[in-house]
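Support reply, case 0932

Customer input (verbatim):
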Amino acid sequence: MANFSKSQVPQFSVEVYQNEFLPEGGREVNAIVTVTSTGGGTTGGIPLADAAPAYGAGQGPGAAVVLMVDCSGSMDYPPTKMRNARDATAAAIDTLREGTRFAVVAGTHGAKDVYPGGGRLAVADAQTKAQAKEALRKLSAGGGTAIGTWLRLADRLLNSADVAIRHGILLTDGRNEHESPEDLRAALDSCVGRFTCDARGVGTDWEVKEVTGVAAALLGTADIVADPSGLAADFTRMMENAMGKEVADVALRLWTPVGVEIRFVKQVAPTVADLTARRTEANARAGDYPTGSWGDESRDYHVCVLVPEAGVGQEMLAARVSLILPDHSGPGSPQTLSQGLVRAVWTDDMVASTSINPQVAHYTGQAELAQVIQQGLDARKSGDFDGATAKLGRAVQLASASGNQDTAKLLSKVVDVVDAATGTVRLKAKVAEADEMTLETRSTKTVRVKK
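Our regenerated output:
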């Protein structure tokens, strides 16, 4: 990917929300960093397609998409599942932007590129879309499930194209039973940073942690489509979102002065994702955290650092947050898209130093909400009903307090809510498997703070 001029890239802005005041000796500094990208799809009013030379290959920034469709034997039970998967993939193909490179992979205990074949990518136009949909009609169910092999083939196909945006869409209906967890982990590790991937589980016979693990590793979204008839609408939305991406490989760079320790860096909206362990060193004082591809959108990140103790009246720059676009075309310097500052000021004003910034408080609660839902469901599965009741009760309390109505609605299908404000609940005696899996899959979805 070539270097972009400011007029050729969506405009990025960084806003920092924090209470910078600390009591004497205070060390922990928290900040919510809101990153917003606007103007995707235009270059100062000029369509991206007309700016192709600046982006390298292809129309606009250039994109390639591989659709991985589960064709294991279980997709035939019921037979409508395979038909719905074919129809959904066809709908996604119809949504491809002209000029996008694409391929379709049939996934079983192996992986086969069923269109266009031969280890190549097709270029989307009316003819290739029709050919791809014809190839889909020939897909049939049979064999096992080895998701790692699907991902490795998608990686080879995507990286054969000189494009900026590389994206996968993965559909499965079963557990990854024909390769070891270590094989899947190794495949994911080999794909990290090479393409993004949305993952969907259809029906209720798949493993939530496998599907969400794929999406988390590859900076995509995960969801359940309990009723296969909903696949076409979901695939269309996913592809529309993928087609809206204009910039890939944007990194959140955190620079800290000597003596400052980083506690964590998390994405907190639209979903919770801990990026702390995904840091790559940029230089002696700075590290990069991957954020994936961007279109017109806004995301929030929670940065927490420990600063050295200091006395009243002192202040310091605790961290500098920058949005970085690497230069993949050669040894040139990365481009800084925007940046914000995190400050620490020591004061003896108790009101100032003890007040919690509303954004920080809100997203601390949303992160806890995701955590206690997982803990509560795990406890329920293991037979620890008292523990499950306590954790899911706390989840109800947090969802209610923060206005996260979607999560509150999902929780109400797993517990009977006696008092949302206090988190008093009773576990339901019978819970539909689809309801429990939906709550687990969507537990990391957050609501944004009202600013």
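We compared this against your earlier run and they match. Two observations from our side: The longest strand covers residues 335-346. Residues 377 and 383 are 10 Å apart (CA to CA). Please reopen the case if you see a mismatch on your end.
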